[in-house]
Amino acid sequence: MSEPSQPQQGSIEIVDSYLSAPEIANRIADLAREITAAGPFEKPLVVVCVLKGSFLFFADLVRRLDLPCNCVFLGVSSYGGTTESSGAVRLTHDLTLDIADRDVLIVEDIVDTGLTMSYLLTILGARRPRTLRVCTLLHKPARKRVDVQLDYIGFTIEDVFVVGYGLDYDERYRNLPYIGAMRFEPA
Ligand code: IMP
Q1: % of residues, the chain, pLDDT over 90
Q2: Ligand 1 mutation pick, 19, 83, 112, max ligand atoms within 8 A of CB
Q3: SS3 96
Q4: Please, what are the domains in the chain?
């Protein structure tokens, strides 16, 4: 995972506004229209919320889909607690639905190195869905380590560490209604 500039002893965290709540809402409306236009599907679209980071994006996106949907949740924990990407992704909560022969959309908050998404595509692809697509709110191509198929992208962003609207730093800031860029300054 990318990190904000390293905190020094006693430094303070600054969050600068990066994407406003209205900008996010407008883009989600566009994404929802695109996804809806790909239907109708034979059975309800299985929409997978990747926890925890995509919980707000998922909630706003599914409310704008004009399609029958099954909402399901998948918990993943990246990198076993360290902040540098090792590629080790752990499943903490599995789907409660069989996705064989179903149209499936993975909803993710951010694709950074791509390692988490690559893992998700491998494990969900092995369950033989009819189609498997990816919608990510943010894409940070500067840090890409593996190529992954991204069917719907909200915003392509620079190499900044972002928080808010579901995204955290040290489990904080998830509840901000906008996305901020984080940095540290000496106190
Ligand atoms: P990846 O496996 O490197 O693509 O990163 C996936 C996960 O790392 C995301 O689902 C986020 O939880 C986390 N992550 C990556 N970049 C950021 C960021 O800028 N802010 C907060 N979390 C991030």
Answers
A1: 84
A2: 112
A3: coil
A4: 20-77+89-157 (3.40.50.2020)
